[in-house]
Amino acid sequence: MxxxxxxxxxxxxxxxxxxxxxxxxxxVELGWQVIGVGRDRQRSAAATERIAAAARDGGAxxxxxxxxxxxxxxxxxxxxxxxxxxxxxxxxxxxxxxxxQRTVTEEGTEATFAVNHLAPFLLTRKLIPLHPEGEGARLxxxxxxxxxxxxxxxxxxxxxxxxxxxxxxFDPIVAYGRAKLANILFTRxxxxxxxxxxxxxxxxxxxxxxxxxxxxxxxxxQAHMATADAVSPDEPAETLAWLATAPEPxxxxxxxxxxxxxxxxxxxxxxxxxxxxxxxxxxxxxxELGFQIADAAESGRIS
Length: 303
Description:
39% of the residues lie in helices and 13% in strands. The chain contains eight helices and eight strands; from the N terminus they run E-H-E-H-E-H-E-H-E-H-E-H-H-E-E-H. It starts with 8 loop residues before the first strand and ends in a 15-residue tail after the last helix.
């Protein structure tokens, strides 16, 4: 896909199905250039056809593939995105999932924590400089980073900082709740650190969505999803498109939305000390895995 630098560009992860596919489609219908990221080859190919066919008014779509349980894949995809576009207007960190059991990746991370938190943390840091030309400098244009979190974060009172990834004691729902709490805390700290450069970070709760989200979840979760009053992926995608394009969510970052309305997250998600600590712990963990993130006057980043 050729990127027209005069037109808006978005990256949507988890774009091969569900909320991500619908969000990408709604954006290309508005004339946006969208770079999607999907894991499954067949689903990615099918989604690409559907999304590209919906493009209007100069909108365009291309799909990259990557398994975001692995940080090496995230780093590779970030490089491919930088090769495609010199600027980015919106990053939608939508990819995620839940597992029935503890799964340790070949990199040594727990898969639920990796795909839901570490991947968007690393992708965001690789794509968007917090201080592009020195402390206090602004980006060439405002950039929005949107996290798809969940009200599952309300199950968690606080992090177990000694077992952040649930590697020692794993419960699927607790692990997922921690990861979704991490999404909101990362959004909060990202908004604080990026405010001076024109970056706006927001988080949202999609609701119970009729998708393949629970396909790798527990039997209880699958039964719940099968009987729940689920909405079409188009509904939360409308909120994501609104968060990406509307004036109101383009200011005052660090907020939490559902159905285009701001909501108050759980107390644990409003803890600024925890948000700062999670940022530092995430950087430390990634460094231990061999993924360094230079903070700030970084060259070669998208602006």
